[in-house]
Predict the structure of Peptidase S53 domain-containing protein.
Amino acid sequence: MNSYGMHSISSHVNGSVAMGESTERNYKRSNGIFIGSIILTFVLLTTAFISATGANPHVLNGPARLVPLRTHITHTHAAAKPGAISGLTPQDLWKMYNLPGINGGAGQTIAEVIDGGIPSMESDLNAYSQRFGLPACNVASGCLTIKYQGGKKIAKGYDPAEGILDVELMHAVAPQAKILLYIMNSDNTSIARGPADIMQTPGLKSINMSYGFDGTGKQFESLYANNPNHVALFAASGDDGSGQITPPSIYPEVIAVGGTVVSGSTESAWSGSGGGRSSLYAEPDYQKTYNIPQSHGLRGNPDVAAVAGTEVVTYEMGKWASETGTSVAAPIWTGIAALVNKPITDDLLYTLAKSQPDSFNDITSGSNGSCGFVCTAHPGYDYVTGLGTPKNFVANVNAMK
């Protein structure tokens, strides 16, 4: 079970007692069932724990549960310092990752998928944009489009701040891009199917998924593979370190985004960055070609990274806040897709890392656990930050023929 938060989770130990038996027999049978249930539950939990913490971290089988990938929210004290902000700004991100800035994303469309309505989305995004000199982005201007799964308005969700964070970061990275906000229902099937609902939207460059769900997710993988327009599918890798990897980030058709910590001009691996190897999927060709280390023939996670353990500024539900988590990293990459003239695919990422390694800032320090090589950042691909964070990525892709 993922520990970084979750929507509706329930666990049950069910037993039944046959009716019409004597009281003594009924009592003994009830005790037997109860003890058997406890033993079975202990065995299952022990097996899950061993599997999750073993030498080859993998995704556990089980019922799907949505888990928001955000470590925490740190709100500023508006009463003491009205309008105060704390954390990295859009301008900081432009400088860190060599992004074009205020003019980036013109003529492009990117998307956010999240469960549950966000009543303050427009007002929060407008306040954020005004504070940092970004273009206004709202429904009236045509910059923001809000659609609902099933065509009917969906009530406020469990965590509206998640969607606000994602959209503001996407707008910060690609200020001129249009944003499609797709509100899904909160049951797991709807969430798993949501990206496929909009994947063939004309002109769409990328979709952000700052969430994960437990279980194999195998029954939904084909939806992500059916992507004829090569829309870049970015998923947060998780906030609980090594071994805590879930769908959709484990899908070979998805680009998994891990996290870093920034100190001045230096980035290191973030301790919470989800990563590892998934036993559910064989190593895809793009990773085989790159020759990622100690893969054991399995899908490695993440593929790339961006800042996650250092706070970024957001404006959520009428208040300034600061956020951390791979929910920050994933929308940064989702916005970057609007800054380049080619579709961002896993093939492109790994090919570019070999042919033009200066496209990425190779993260070589830090760790996300205590499992040795798999939990430690090092030169080249690693299971904490993937290929690294953007360096000359935008310029190099746009210079490709």
